């Protein structure tokens, strides 16, 4: 987990998961599976008027799914994307 930069109230997370064919719960370590994949997620944080925090996942630059496996790679991808004309 890391932050994008000092200008944004964003968290960058790397999540690790593997796909399953059936929705089953593993009961032993050997049942957990293989073929793990990593993905970077950008979470935008904001504070509402009542003081509560809101969290919104923003996939506009990183995509979903993606194969970004480090925070540094996610930052690079975000910087490249935000330089593109027409980026919001």
Report on this structure:
14% of the residues lie in helices and 30% in strands. It has 1 helix and 4 strands; from the N terminus they run E-E-E-E-H. A 4-stranded antiparallel sheet has the order 1-2-3-4, covered by helices on one side. A hairpin with a 6-residue loop joins strand 1 and strand 2 (10-17). It is globular, with a radius of gyration of 16 Å. The chain starts with a strand and ends in a 6-residue tail after the last helix. Residues 72-88 have a biased composition (Basic and acidic residues). Residues 64-88 are annotated as: Disordered.
Features:
88 residues, alpha+beta
Structure in a nutshell:
The protein has about 90 residues and is of the alpha+beta class. The chain is about 15% helix and about 30% strand.
Spatial strand sequence of the major β-sheet = 1-2-3-4
The averaged pLDDT comes out at 87
Beta-strand portion reads: 25-35%
State the distance separating the first and last CA atoms.
Answer: 24 Å
Number of helices: 1
**Proportion of residues in helical segments:** 10-25%
Number of strands: 4
Poorly predicted sequence stretches spanning 5 or more consecutive residues: none
Specify the biggest β-sheet: 4 strands, antiparallel
The structural class is: alpha+beta
SSE pattern: EEEEH
Using the alpha-carbon principal axes, give the shape: globular
Radius of gyration: 16 Å
Q: Please give the domain count.
A: 1
